[in-house]
Please model this.
Amino acid sequence: MIFEAILFAADAHSGQYRKGTNIPYISHLINVMKILCQNNCTEEVILAGILHDVVEDTPVTIEDVEAIFGRKVAFLVRGATEVQKLVKIRKVSDEVSWKERKQHTLDFLTKDATHDQLLVSSADKLDNLRAIREDEGTMGEELWKRFNAGKEDQKWYYTAIAEALAKRATETGEPLKGISNEISGIVSSLFKNHT
Model:
């Protein structure tokens, strides 16, 4: 099923690139999969990692994911998808601000996400942060112009993510704790001189 999910995601995300780069988007999904594999996650968690953006960023629906990959994988993907994007009505999504969408994600991770949903989301955030750190090393402050929200908002979001995941990791232990620790370290390093 993992190889089927890779092919499905590659097809769904065909023509998409990482924000502000010429790197095909599938690379992010493969990196998320790798993090989950290295942490000995279940096949369903790994499948959800590969598919975590397919509902948010492509015409694929959560019902499509469930029909092909099953109820549990769809449940995990739903947890990684911004709630406004679960309903394929672009107008509704556009009415909600970046900060409101991110606050909803934070609330979900802090209160409601299951251990497996936390693993999918944390692997996603970890790969995003690794990419940001790498690009900041070559681009400097110019990097932050590629995002919908500037460095100050990104600092707020990723600091809150790191805190939420660290707190939840005390409840769930490994492998979330290890992933969470790396996220905290990158966030601390990225924003250390930013007030």
Q: What stands out?
A: Confidence is low (pLDDT under 50) at residues 89-93. The radius of gyration is 16 Å.
